[in-house]
Amino acid sequence: MFGRGNRDNPLWKLEYIDTVYKIYDWDKNLTGYFFPNYDINIDNYKDESQDAHEVEDNIIEQMNKEKQSVKGGNVMLPMVKLQLLDNEEGIDLDYVINSLDQNAQRTRKWKQWIHDNHLEFKIFGSSIYTAREDRMLSIVLGLGYNIILGKKKLALV
Predict the structure, then answer these.
(1) What CA–CA distance (Å, rounded) separates 123 from 141?
(2) For residues 14 and 17, what is the distance between their CA atoms, to the nearest angstrom?
(3) Residues 82-107: what's their mean pLDDT?
(4) Per-residue pLDDT tens for 35-62?
(5) How big is the CA angle at 127 (ends 123 and 130), to the nearest 5 degrees?
(6) What is the spatial distance between Cα 3 and Cα 6, in angstroms, rounded to a whole number?
């Protein structure tokens, strides 16, 4: 899924930071994020003297170091760039119509891609979110297959 190249040289790169993987394309541009489903029951690991958040972070760090397998997760990728919001000057009507048409077309391509690939990638759901900074809609795909943690292993998925 993450820009499959050959087994020795994946097209996309991943960087692990604070429980999340950042996804970079072949030009080293930030392309998205992968949020593994760590599915941790911290009650099995902590006592009353430990902070639950700290225990969970330590377990997740260890899981990533050991390249353990997790049951899926969520991948967030940009879907469409709106370029119509927060414009203080008037926008030409034809520009607005063209922009909305292009975004609708791109959204339909996403829908078709999900339809065509949901079995291969075990996509069990999708949701659309607005990005905070860049006036964009992002798509989040729920993946339901076993994934081995680690930058190199994930890049080969």
Answers:
(1) 6
(2) 10
(3) 89
(4) 999 988 777 666 666 787 888 888 899 9
(5) 140
(6) 10
pTM: 0.82
Question: If you compute the radius of gyration of the chain from its CA atoms, what whole number of angstroms results?
Answer: 19
Instruction: State how many domains the chain has.
Output: 1
DSSP 29-97: -EEEEEEE-----GGGT--TTS-HHHHHHHHHHHHHHTT-EEEEEEEEEEEEE---TT--S---HHHHH
Which residues, 6+ apart, have CB-to-CB distance to 35 below 8 Å?
19, 20, 21, 73, 74, 75, 76
Q: Does 5 fall in a domain? A: no
The tokens of 125 are what? 């759901």
* Sole residue written with tokens 């639950």: 52
Spatial neighbors of 155 by CB under 8 A, at least 6 apart, are 2, 3, 10, 12, 13, 14
Q: Which domain covers residue 44, as residue numbers?
A: 13-78+121-155
Cα dihedral 109, 111, 117, 122 sign: positive
Rounded CA gap, 96 and 69, in Å? 46
